[in-house]
Amino acid sequence: MSLHSLELALDFRDNYEAKVASAADYVKNKLREYKPIFGVVLGSGLGELADSIKGATVISYEEIPNFPTTTVPGHEGKLLIGELEGVPVIGLKGRKHYYEVADEPFNTGILQTVFPVHVLAELGVSNYFVTNASGGLNQDYAIGDIMIIFSHINFLPNALLGRHHNFSKVDDTSQVWRFQPMNGAYDQQLTQMLSQAGSSHKGRVHKGIYLAVTGPTYETEGESIAFREGLKADAVGMSTTSEVIVARNRGMRVVGMSCITNVISADGTNAANHEEVKAILESPAVKDRLSSTIRKFFKLYRESMGSSQK
Ligand code: HPA
């Protein structure tokens, strides 16, 4: 690592709030008066949902000052700003995973993974819809099922470790806390709406606990058994929890779902590989189940707007 890259990392860590602010200013200029109320992570397999975002303004991650770009194939880096079933959203097509940046100095790896969430918060976006791909530990799950995330176990470095940031909350503009409570992290009302949205896919939509590990290895038999029998996790993946911690810290409401791309067998065998995971996410039936559930969710949300939602 050169001295120059160390200086860049130090600058990113020490001036994090300013880096977020300049990225948010860039996006704000493009938004003009438009006020998105949801950030939607279009994780693996959900790229095409981008086509459902009407009148989208597209901003490449590369254009935005300081915005982390993605390096994983299948994760394009774009913001899509427009209406999803009548709800103003910012779609995030592509995310940075911790395994890509874990060797960055000074904790800046994890700070990169959550950078987009901070930008959304600076833009006043008050809801965060997170999606991901994961391996099914629960033996009732089948490949291509959806797991609505009811709670999570975070085995990634905690995104609030290190210097306390001077950010304020989106909901009441008070300062963020260091000791963020994480009970009820996944909003009950939004989660209920997502269950309702998925209810036509009988037996293929579940509710469970998501465990985040660093990867990039898939699990050994021992790990799979420990995660299922010991930790009682229903699915395991390599993203999401850091983003949710920051979204909650910034006062956003969170809702999330996971696409089960492989099922880990009872004896702990995880035969997944990245190519197979991608192939499942590209299969028309799976893409349709994911996209139709999300579209239905936004339809229900739209219908509820004007009552208690904001
Ligand atoms: N383990 C971890 N991450 C994953 C898996 C898995 O089996 N499948 C998709 N992402």
Structural description of this entry:
34% of the residues lie in helices and 22% in strands. By secondary structure, the chain is α/β, with parallel strands linked by helices. The chain has a single domain (3-308), classed as Nucleoside phosphorylase domain (Rossmann fold, 3-Layer(aba) Sandwich), CATH 3.40.50.1580. It has a five-stranded mixed barrel with strand order 5-8-7-6-9, surrounded by four helices. Strand 7, helix 7 (221-230) and strand 8 form a beta-alpha-beta unit. The longest helix is centred in the last third of the chain and has 21 residues, at 284-304. Bound molecules: hypoxanthine. Hypoxanthine binds at residues 133-135, 215, 218-219, 236-238, 261-262, 270, 272, 277. Hypoxanthine (HPA) binds at residues 133-135, 215, 218-219, 236-238, 261-262, 270, 272, 277.
